[in-house]
Write a structure and sequence with these properties.
- The protein is mainly alpha-helical and about 325 residues long.
- It is about 70% helix and about 5% strand.
- The strands form two sheets. The protein has a two-stranded antiparallel sheet with strand order 1-2.
- Helix 1 runs antiparallel to helix 3, helix 1 packs parallel to helix 12 and helix 3 crosses helix 8.
- The protein is globular.
Protein backbone atom coordinates (compact mmCIF):
# COMPACT_ATOMS: atom_id res chain seq x y z
CA UNK A 1 0.00 0.00 0.00
CA UNK A 2 2.87 2.36 0.86
CA UNK A 3 4.60 1.62 -2.42
CA UNK A 4 1.34 2.11 -4.32
CA UNK A 5 1.09 5.61 -2.88
CA UNK A 6 4.75 6.24 -3.63
CA UNK A 7 4.23 4.98 -7.18
CA UNK A 8 1.44 7.52 -7.66
CA UNK A 9 3.67 10.29 -6.31
CA UNK A 10 6.49 9.27 -8.67
CA UNK A 11 4.19 9.49 -11.69
CA UNK A 12 2.92 12.91 -10.57
CA UNK A 13 6.45 14.10 -9.85
CA UNK A 14 7.69 13.16 -13.33
CA UNK A 15 4.99 14.99 -15.28
CA UNK A 16 6.34 18.53 -15.12
CA UNK A 17 10.05 17.75 -15.66
CA UNK A 18 9.10 15.68 -18.70
CA UNK A 19 7.00 18.55 -20.10
CA UNK A 20 10.02 20.83 -19.65
CA UNK A 21 12.03 18.24 -21.58
CA UNK A 22 9.45 18.36 -24.40
CA UNK A 23 9.88 22.15 -24.54
CA UNK A 24 13.65 21.63 -24.83
CA UNK A 25 13.09 19.24 -27.74
CA UNK A 26 10.90 21.69 -29.63
CA UNK A 27 13.17 24.66 -28.90
CA UNK A 28 16.32 22.88 -30.03
CA UNK A 29 18.69 25.43 -31.58
CA UNK A 30 22.21 24.17 -32.10
CA UNK A 31 22.79 27.40 -34.03
CA UNK A 32 21.51 30.91 -33.33
CA UNK A 33 21.46 34.11 -35.35
CA UNK A 34 23.04 37.26 -33.90
CA UNK A 35 22.82 40.46 -35.98
CA UNK A 36 22.15 38.45 -39.11
CA UNK A 37 25.11 36.10 -38.58
CA UNK A 38 24.49 32.43 -37.83
CA UNK A 39 26.69 31.21 -35.02
CA UNK A 40 26.67 28.30 -32.63
CA UNK A 41 28.17 25.57 -34.78
CA UNK A 42 30.36 22.89 -33.29
CA UNK A 43 33.48 24.63 -34.60
CA UNK A 44 32.51 28.25 -33.85
CA UNK A 45 30.77 27.90 -30.47
CA UNK A 46 31.38 24.31 -29.32
CA UNK A 47 30.16 24.81 -25.73
CA UNK A 48 26.78 26.14 -26.87
CA UNK A 49 26.47 23.44 -29.52
CA UNK A 50 27.33 20.63 -27.11
CA UNK A 51 25.02 21.83 -24.31
CA UNK A 52 22.13 22.48 -26.71
CA UNK A 53 22.47 19.08 -28.36
CA UNK A 54 22.96 17.29 -25.03
CA UNK A 55 19.83 18.71 -23.41
CA UNK A 56 17.53 18.90 -26.44
CA UNK A 57 18.50 15.82 -28.45
CA UNK A 58 19.89 13.42 -25.86
CA UNK A 59 18.55 13.84 -22.31
CA UNK A 60 15.17 15.28 -23.28
CA UNK A 61 14.52 12.45 -25.75
CA UNK A 62 13.28 10.19 -22.94
CA UNK A 63 10.26 12.46 -22.34
CA UNK A 64 7.86 11.29 -25.07
CA UNK A 65 8.56 7.55 -24.64
CA UNK A 66 8.17 7.98 -20.88
CA UNK A 67 4.82 9.72 -21.32
CA UNK A 68 3.57 6.86 -23.49
CA UNK A 69 4.86 4.36 -20.93
CA UNK A 70 3.02 6.16 -18.14
CA UNK A 71 -0.15 6.37 -20.25
CA UNK A 72 -0.14 2.64 -20.91
CA UNK A 73 0.56 1.85 -17.28
CA UNK A 74 -2.23 4.09 -15.98
CA UNK A 75 -4.77 2.92 -18.55
CA UNK A 76 -4.63 -0.67 -17.30
CA UNK A 77 -4.20 0.24 -13.64
CA UNK A 78 -7.50 -1.34 -12.58
CA UNK A 79 -8.64 -4.49 -10.84
CA UNK A 80 -9.81 -6.13 -14.06
CA UNK A 81 -9.95 -4.98 -17.66
CA UNK A 82 -13.32 -5.76 -19.19
CA UNK A 83 -15.99 -4.26 -21.44
CA UNK A 84 -17.35 -1.98 -18.72
CA UNK A 85 -13.92 -0.69 -17.74
CA UNK A 86 -13.06 -0.11 -21.39
CA UNK A 87 -16.29 1.81 -21.98
CA UNK A 88 -15.70 4.06 -18.95
CA UNK A 89 -12.12 4.75 -19.96
CA UNK A 90 -13.16 5.63 -23.52
CA UNK A 91 -15.68 8.13 -22.12
CA UNK A 92 -13.00 9.59 -19.84
CA UNK A 93 -10.48 9.91 -22.69
CA UNK A 94 -13.11 11.64 -24.82
CA UNK A 95 -13.05 14.45 -22.25
CA UNK A 96 -9.31 14.46 -21.52
CA UNK A 97 -7.93 13.74 -25.01
CA UNK A 98 -10.35 14.39 -27.86
CA UNK A 99 -11.89 17.66 -26.64
CA UNK A 100 -8.51 19.32 -25.86
CA UNK A 101 -7.13 18.01 -29.16
CA UNK A 102 -9.96 19.58 -31.16
CA UNK A 103 -9.97 22.79 -29.11
CA UNK A 104 -6.27 23.64 -29.48
CA UNK A 105 -5.95 22.65 -33.14
CA UNK A 106 -9.17 24.29 -34.29
CA UNK A 107 -8.28 27.43 -32.29
CA UNK A 108 -4.95 27.74 -34.08
CA UNK A 109 -6.46 27.03 -37.49
CA UNK A 110 -9.09 29.72 -36.85
CA UNK A 111 -6.54 32.30 -35.67
CA UNK A 112 -4.28 31.41 -38.59
CA UNK A 113 -7.18 32.00 -40.99
CA UNK A 114 -8.21 35.31 -39.38
CA UNK A 115 -4.66 36.69 -39.25
CA UNK A 116 -4.09 35.70 -42.88
CA UNK A 117 -6.91 38.03 -43.91
CA UNK A 118 -5.75 41.07 -41.95
CA UNK A 119 -4.66 44.04 -44.08
CA UNK A 120 -0.92 44.46 -44.37
CA UNK A 121 0.13 40.93 -43.48
CA UNK A 122 -2.12 38.81 -45.68
CA UNK A 123 0.65 38.65 -48.30
CA UNK A 124 2.71 36.55 -45.89
CA UNK A 125 0.05 33.85 -46.15
CA UNK A 126 -0.34 33.99 -49.94
CA UNK A 127 0.76 30.39 -50.36
CA UNK A 128 -1.97 28.98 -48.10
CA UNK A 129 -5.07 27.68 -49.82
CA UNK A 130 -7.82 27.21 -47.23
CA UNK A 131 -9.58 24.25 -48.80
CA UNK A 132 -11.38 21.43 -47.03
CA UNK A 133 -8.32 19.25 -47.67
CA UNK A 134 -6.14 21.83 -45.93
CA UNK A 135 -8.37 21.90 -42.83
CA UNK A 136 -8.60 18.12 -42.53
CA UNK A 137 -4.85 17.62 -42.97
CA UNK A 138 -4.07 20.47 -40.56
CA UNK A 139 -6.41 18.96 -38.00
CA UNK A 140 -5.32 15.33 -38.27
CA UNK A 141 -1.83 15.44 -39.73
CA UNK A 142 0.38 16.52 -42.60
CA UNK A 143 3.18 14.23 -43.66
CA UNK A 144 6.78 15.15 -42.86
CA UNK A 145 9.24 13.30 -45.06
CA UNK A 146 12.10 14.11 -42.70
CA UNK A 147 10.33 12.56 -39.70
CA UNK A 148 8.45 9.93 -41.74
CA UNK A 149 5.24 10.69 -39.86
CA UNK A 150 2.42 13.21 -39.88
CA UNK A 151 1.75 16.14 -37.57
CA UNK A 152 -1.37 18.26 -36.93
CA UNK A 153 -0.99 22.03 -37.22
CA UNK A 154 -0.23 22.26 -33.47
CA UNK A 155 2.30 19.56 -34.07
CA UNK A 156 3.08 18.39 -30.52
CA UNK A 157 -0.50 17.12 -30.45
CA UNK A 158 0.61 14.15 -32.57
CA UNK A 159 1.19 12.59 -29.14
CA UNK A 160 -2.49 13.05 -28.23
CA UNK A 161 -3.62 11.85 -31.67
CA UNK A 162 -1.56 8.67 -31.43
CA UNK A 163 -2.71 8.14 -27.87
CA UNK A 164 -6.37 8.40 -28.92
CA UNK A 165 -5.85 5.77 -31.62
CA UNK A 166 -4.01 3.45 -29.23
CA UNK A 167 -6.71 3.85 -26.57
CA UNK A 168 -9.30 2.65 -29.08
CA UNK A 169 -7.08 -0.36 -29.81
CA UNK A 170 -6.49 -1.26 -26.14
CA UNK A 171 -8.66 -4.43 -26.22
CA UNK A 172 -6.39 -5.78 -28.97
CA UNK A 173 -3.31 -4.71 -27.02
CA UNK A 174 -4.64 -6.33 -23.84
CA UNK A 175 -5.27 -9.72 -25.43
CA UNK A 176 -2.06 -9.54 -27.46
CA UNK A 177 -0.02 -9.05 -24.29
CA UNK A 178 -1.99 -11.66 -22.35
CA UNK A 179 -1.48 -14.22 -25.11
CA UNK A 180 2.14 -13.52 -26.10
CA UNK A 181 3.39 -12.48 -22.64
CA UNK A 182 6.67 -10.58 -22.87
CA UNK A 183 7.60 -12.23 -26.20
CA UNK A 184 5.12 -10.06 -28.13
CA UNK A 185 6.33 -6.95 -26.33
CA UNK A 186 9.93 -7.86 -27.16
CA UNK A 187 9.02 -8.25 -30.85
CA UNK A 188 7.39 -4.81 -30.95
CA UNK A 189 10.35 -3.40 -29.02
CA UNK A 190 12.80 -4.77 -31.56
CA UNK A 191 10.80 -3.12 -34.35
CA UNK A 192 11.11 0.19 -32.51
CA UNK A 193 14.79 -0.32 -31.70
CA UNK A 194 15.70 -1.24 -35.28
CA UNK A 195 13.47 1.50 -36.72
CA UNK A 196 11.23 -1.00 -38.52
CA UNK A 197 7.90 0.67 -39.16
CA UNK A 198 4.78 0.26 -41.26
CA UNK A 199 4.85 2.28 -44.52
CA UNK A 200 3.38 5.73 -44.01
CA UNK A 201 0.33 5.06 -46.21
CA UNK A 202 -0.80 2.29 -43.83
CA UNK A 203 0.64 3.68 -40.62
CA UNK A 204 -1.93 4.33 -37.91
CA UNK A 205 0.43 5.17 -35.02
CA UNK A 206 4.13 5.79 -34.58
CA UNK A 207 6.17 2.79 -33.42
CA UNK A 208 7.52 4.68 -30.40
CA UNK A 209 3.92 5.38 -29.35
CA UNK A 210 2.88 1.74 -29.67
CA UNK A 211 5.91 0.13 -28.04
CA UNK A 212 6.15 2.30 -24.94
CA UNK A 213 2.39 2.32 -24.37
CA UNK A 214 2.48 -1.47 -24.59
CA UNK A 215 5.48 -1.60 -22.24
CA UNK A 216 3.62 0.41 -19.61
CA UNK A 217 0.50 -1.70 -20.20
CA UNK A 218 2.53 -4.90 -19.71
CA UNK A 219 3.74 -3.79 -16.27
CA UNK A 220 0.22 -2.81 -15.25
CA UNK A 221 -1.47 -5.99 -16.58
CA UNK A 222 1.14 -8.10 -14.76
CA UNK A 223 0.41 -6.10 -11.58
CA UNK A 224 3.96 -4.84 -11.32
CA UNK A 225 4.65 -1.95 -8.97
CA UNK A 226 7.10 0.45 -10.61
CA UNK A 227 8.71 1.39 -7.29
CA UNK A 228 9.31 -2.28 -6.48
CA UNK A 229 10.75 -2.90 -9.94
CA UNK A 230 13.29 -0.07 -9.88
CA UNK A 231 14.17 -0.95 -6.28
CA UNK A 232 15.51 -4.27 -7.58
CA UNK A 233 18.36 -2.25 -9.11
CA UNK A 234 20.19 -1.60 -5.86
CA UNK A 235 23.48 -0.39 -7.29
CA UNK A 236 23.99 3.07 -8.75
CA UNK A 237 25.99 1.74 -11.70
CA UNK A 238 22.99 2.42 -13.92
CA UNK A 239 23.49 6.19 -13.56
CA UNK A 240 27.11 5.90 -14.69
CA UNK A 241 26.09 3.67 -17.57
CA UNK A 242 23.46 6.17 -18.71
CA UNK A 243 25.98 9.04 -18.54
CA UNK A 244 28.38 7.05 -20.72
CA UNK A 245 25.62 6.20 -23.22
CA UNK A 246 24.51 9.86 -23.29
CA UNK A 247 28.08 10.96 -24.06
CA UNK A 248 28.30 8.31 -26.78
CA UNK A 249 24.98 9.50 -28.19
CA UNK A 250 26.23 13.08 -28.22
CA UNK A 251 29.48 12.15 -29.97
CA UNK A 252 27.96 9.92 -32.66
CA UNK A 253 25.13 12.13 -33.97
CA UNK A 254 26.64 12.19 -37.47
CA UNK A 255 26.84 8.41 -37.80
CA UNK A 256 24.10 6.03 -38.96
CA UNK A 257 24.55 3.71 -35.97
CA UNK A 258 23.67 6.59 -33.64
CA UNK A 259 20.04 5.42 -33.78
CA UNK A 260 20.93 2.34 -31.73
CA UNK A 261 23.05 4.28 -29.23
CA UNK A 262 20.24 6.81 -28.91
CA UNK A 263 17.59 4.14 -28.29
CA UNK A 264 19.72 2.42 -25.66
CA UNK A 265 19.98 5.81 -23.96
CA UNK A 266 16.19 6.19 -23.99
CA UNK A 267 15.67 2.81 -22.31
CA UNK A 268 18.20 3.41 -19.57
CA UNK A 269 17.18 7.06 -19.23
CA UNK A 270 13.63 6.01 -18.40
CA UNK A 271 14.87 3.58 -15.76
CA UNK A 272 17.13 6.26 -14.27
CA UNK A 273 14.24 8.75 -14.23
CA UNK A 274 12.11 6.40 -12.12
CA UNK A 275 15.00 5.42 -9.87
CA UNK A 276 16.08 9.02 -9.29
CA UNK A 277 12.49 10.10 -8.61
CA UNK A 278 12.06 7.37 -5.99
CA UNK A 279 15.34 8.46 -4.36
CA UNK A 280 14.30 12.13 -4.26
CA UNK A 281 10.88 11.34 -2.82
CA UNK A 282 12.15 8.94 -0.16
CA UNK A 283 15.62 10.15 0.79
CA UNK A 284 15.33 13.88 0.11
CA UNK A 285 11.66 14.19 1.11
CA UNK A 286 10.85 15.97 -2.16
CA UNK A 287 7.14 16.08 -2.89
CA UNK A 288 5.27 16.64 -6.16
CA UNK A 289 3.96 20.20 -6.46
CA UNK A 290 0.26 19.91 -7.41
CA UNK A 291 0.29 23.22 -9.29
CA UNK A 292 3.14 22.12 -11.56
CA UNK A 293 1.56 18.73 -12.23
CA UNK A 294 -1.75 20.42 -13.05
CA UNK A 295 -0.04 23.00 -15.28
CA UNK A 296 1.82 20.38 -17.31
CA UNK A 297 -0.82 19.97 -20.01
CA UNK A 298 -1.24 23.73 -20.43
CA UNK A 299 2.52 24.13 -20.94
CA UNK A 300 2.41 21.25 -23.41
CA UNK A 301 -0.48 22.84 -25.34
CA UNK A 302 0.77 26.43 -25.62
CA UNK A 303 4.54 26.12 -25.93
CA UNK A 304 4.42 25.56 -29.67
CA UNK A 305 3.50 27.16 -32.02
CA UNK A 306 1.90 29.77 -29.75
CA UNK A 307 5.12 30.69 -27.91
CA UNK A 308 8.09 29.05 -29.62
CA UNK A 309 7.31 29.36 -33.33
CA UNK A 310 9.86 31.30 -35.35
CA UNK A 311 7.34 33.99 -36.20
CA UNK A 312 6.45 34.64 -32.56
CA UNK A 313 10.08 34.60 -31.44
CA UNK A 314 11.09 37.01 -34.17
CA UNK A 315 8.24 39.36 -33.29
CA UNK A 316 9.01 39.49 -29.56
CA UNK A 317 12.76 38.94 -29.51
Amino acid sequence: MVNNRLQSEVLDFLRFPMIVAVVFIHNDSSTITIQGVEVGSNSYMPLFYISSTLFSQVIASIAVPLFFFMSGFLFFLCAKFNKGVYSNKIKSRFRTLLIPYLFWNISFITIHYVVSHLPGISSSFSGVNYTWEYFTSALWGRYSEQENMSFPIVYQFWFIRDLMVIVILTPLIFYFLKFTKWYGLLAVGLCWFLNISIPYQYNVVNMVSLFFFMAGAHFSICRKNLVDEVSLIRKNWIYLFYILVAIADLCTKKYTYNLFVHNIGILFGIICSFKLSVYLLIKCNVKPIPFLSAASFFVFAVHNPWLLSMGVKKYYF
